[in-house]
Amino acid sequence: MLRVHFDPADLARVRIARSPDPLAETVLSLPALQAGERGGVALAGWRERTRRGLRSTVRPLLELAPGAAGEYVPEAFVHAATGALPDSLDHTWSLPRRQWTADLRATEYLRPGTPRWINALHRGEREWRGLVDRTVREYHAVVSPPTGRSSWRPRRPTARGARRSPSTSVSTGCSARCTPSETPAGTGDLDRRTGTSPATASHHATVLRAAGLLSTGRDGNGVRHTLTPLGRALLAGGSV
Fold first, then answer.
1. From residue 191, how far is each of 15, 61, 161, 194, 209 by CA, in Å?
2. 237: left (phi over 0), alpha (psi -120 to 50) or beta
3. How confident is the model over 19-47, as pLDDT tens digits?
4. Per-residue pLDDT tens for 171-191?
5. What residue segments make up the domains of the chain, in order of their start?
6. What is the DSSP string of 126-187?
7. What backbone phi and psi angles, to 5 degrees, belong to 216?
8. pTM given for the model
9. What CATH architecture applies to the domain 163-236?
């Protein structure tokens, strides 16, 4: 598992998006859909339901974001950081040509056997952009519940100072902040071990607790934070 550690200066530059980016979530769910071992039993039900609801027309997306371990997923589709799928797609299609060219070079280098249509997509051919736009919308409608919020939450670290979604905050926050909680600790212990303020340590504990990664119980006049089995499994890099 890739871990990203933040020092206080890094944390000061991090912004939290109001909601997860639906395009990034949708595209990053595709490898997990195809690789049965990813996510263990936690994703088994989601994977089965999604597969039943898909049509063959979404097959190109499985080539765009394959399930094999270490496969490259085009960066152009995972950094829109908007709250609505149409807006994220518009943002992606309007990226400068230099970004698509750079992503094409990375794709060709990291995936030598990439289907030709993906290269054509990066070169801006309208036929393939239209195809991907339609199939992403179709796939998103299947993986999203009626509320419109995606049922899949990707865990993807980003660069320093980046805009981050709440789901990403949980994953990277766990990597960066859970380590001091492998043994039970109070909030005061956490801020001393991690070099953050009490408010920051308390915020991280709240986010991790809401994600089911941390449990908090009373200890006299204070509280004690402990990793849950899910939190320990995620920290260890195992299947959860």
1. 20, 43, 21, 5, 16
2. left
3. 778 898 899 888 888 887 666 667 778 88
4. 444 444 444 445 667 767 776
5. 21-143, 163-236
6. HHHHHHHHHHHHHHHHHHS-TTS--S--------TT-EE-HHHHHHHHHHHHSGGGSS-B-H
7. -130, 130
8. 0.56
9. Orthogonal Bundle (1.10)
